[in-house]
Design a protein that fits this description.
By secondary structure, this protein is mainly alpha-helical. It contains 17 helices and two strands. The chain is 56% helix and 1% strand.
Amino acid sequence: MTIVPDAHRSVAKRTGAIEWPTVAILIGAYAIWLLGTGPLWSLSPLVGLVATTIAIAQFSSLQHEVLHGHPFASRRVNEALVFPGLTLVIPYGRFRDTHLAHHYDPSLTDPYDDPESNYQDPDAWARLPRWVQRVLRLNNTLLGRMLLGPAVSIVMFVRGDLALLRAGDAAVRSAWVLHGWGVAMVLVWLLAFGAMPIWAYALAAYAGISLLKIRTFAEHRAHTAARARTVVIEDRGPLALLFLNNNLHSVHHMHPTVPWYQLPALYAGNRDHYLRRNEGYVFAGYGHVFRSYLFRAKDPVPHPVWPMHRLDLRDADPRDADPRDADLTD
């Protein structure tokens, strides 16, 4: 059972107030998307492609905010705001369901129970064809994650959903049907009003996911203590805005209903606490991540501490007994 204390419900859920910074970013993302696929493409295909790529990445970050209950109190209104299928390949409903499952911290990095894990069960890894192992090893460098990562994640995601569809999963079927309508909206715009050709839009969608892979690359690590698996990247530049401060990922996992624009102050006021809790899993910024791992793997693909020790009380630190950490409890 998931419990979200009132103290850490989103502002919208708690008071009915509208979270205007999120609304503003959403309006901006749509405006850049419309410009990128229309007049900017006509002016310069390169400028249009870059603008559309950025808009798609920003839109994906906004979908993440929506699934955590922002910016309005109504889930239907929130989800309507991100209904168009700008990313083309990932249904919002499936992103929502798998990401919320990912937020069960004791399963973080688990090859089976964490839907966002990039680790493999060592036994399953040993049975993979050599060429697949080479691809996954390359995918564990930052450059590989950006170039190959979108394709790898799309193939694995679609393959998993096809299995669920064959098994008759109604929720998965519904998510894909709704996504089809959302993609149709994008195609109608491109064919009837936009200037960007569909092949170029597909490239922008791929590049948008590639940008997001910068954020997800270092988000989690294998560790026996669940609290030490999630990173803090102390970045306040354009990538932090693009990712809506999800670079403060450990803070987000501890307080998943806090809106993006409150995370920096929350971290700054409790920095020692968060870094003690995640055992110093921190980078000074995305420049540090690029310098360290652009051509070098951060992790092995086979899970290095498999089988995982789950909720081992020996990992608990009594100094971490803070009710502010209790956004998710079993």
